[in-house]
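Work Package 3 (structural annotation) set out to generate three-dimensional models for the target panel prioritized at the project kickoff. During this period the team completed the workflow that converts sequence records into discrete structure tokens, so that structures can be stored uniformly alongside our sequence database. As a representative example, we reproduce one entry of 193 residues exactly as it appears in the project archive.
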Amino acid sequence: MILKAIIDDRSYDIGVPDSLLSRAGEFYDKLDQDMDGGWQMSREWVEKPDRLQRCQIVADKLLTALESENRKLTMMMAGYLLTRLPGVESVELDIQGEIQNNRFNLAERVAERPPIPEAMAGAGLSKLEAMEQAGNDVTKVFKVGRGYRYSTFDHAANLWRDSPLSATEQEASRLRQEAFKTRYEELLRGSSH
């Protein structure tokens, strides 16, 4: 598997053999255990880092490994990101030391999408079916750095679209609820886009 690391305008393709991924599971579990007790993320102490924060922490270690040209550690840290963030294609590393500014670019998660049943794609769905499909098409709110966002699946383009970043979880939840309602109403009318 390959992870692309982007530092400023430079890009590095890090090849991680599948054999390393299968052998490194114990090492990755130990990394997670170390982070279970909390972690200093730049100026902020995070009591219980979530999955994204853990990956941002490891991305910071990846940057250090790349800068010190430690090939083995580079592959190990890239491997962690590949196993913990399914679909990750690249990571944009923050060189200012702001761990929460490390950003990940994920592949289109098309394979994970439950498709709209063909029999229902042209016609409107029942209220229950529309509610279930809208729940599949609009993710829950998640934290990104210091902000919050959600993603909506665009069936016409066959990819996920991220919402704008909101300053608070409440604001992101309000916007997500509007997106959910819009999607629900589209499905009731029979639009799959």
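Residues 59 and 102 are 7 Å apart (CA to CA).
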